[in-house]
Amino acid sequence: MKKTPLRTCIVCREKKEKRKLIRIVRDKENQTVFFDKTGKANGRGAYICGSDKCIEALGNVKMINNILNVNVKKEDMENVKEDIKKYLKEEVLN
User: Fold this and answer.
1) DSSP type of residue 9
2) Distance between CA atoms of 46 and 44, rounded to whole angstroms?
3) Of 1, 36, 53, 69, which alpha carbon lies 20 to 30 A from 85's?
4) Alpha-carbon distance 33 to 27, whole Å?
5) Which residues pair with 65 in a beta bridge?
6) In terms of C-beta density within 10 A (0-12 exposed, 13-18 middle, 19 or more buried), how is residue 8 classed?
7) Going from the N-terminus, what domains does the chain have, and what CATH number goes with each?
């Protein structure tokens, strides 16, 4: 039997299966943060669960900067939050 990889949500600290979490990645080259739909993009990653509370906590830029070791702008994190919300809506519709 194969082990299922577990990851921890950076906001609520719950451990869940990797594929049930949302991955946010810091691009090493140009120091940007983006939502990784595939879960396989290169760069340092952090995971959040899909709850509204955890998604809204992404507005806390200081937390993201510490975890991903980057200086991201609040506007950029708002774009990431919107991308995640769109993705979750698409998943519900399909």
Assistant:
1) B
2) 7
3) 69
4) 6
5) none
6) middle
7) 6-93 (3.30.1230.10)
Six token digits for residue 90: 């698409």
pLDDT of 12 above 70? yes
Tokens 């509370």 label which residue?
Answer: 53
Sign of CA dihedral 82, 72, 10, 39: positive
Single pTM value for the model: 0.88
Q: In what order do the strands lie in the sheet with 22-26?
A: 33-36, 22-26, 44-48
Asked if residues 17 and 52 have their Cβ atoms less than 8 Å apart, the reply is no
Q: Given a cut of 90, is residue 87 above it in pLDDT? A: yes
What's the pLDDT tens digit per position in 34-69?
Answer: 999 998 899 999 999 989 999 999 888 999 999 999
- 49 token code pair: 């669960």
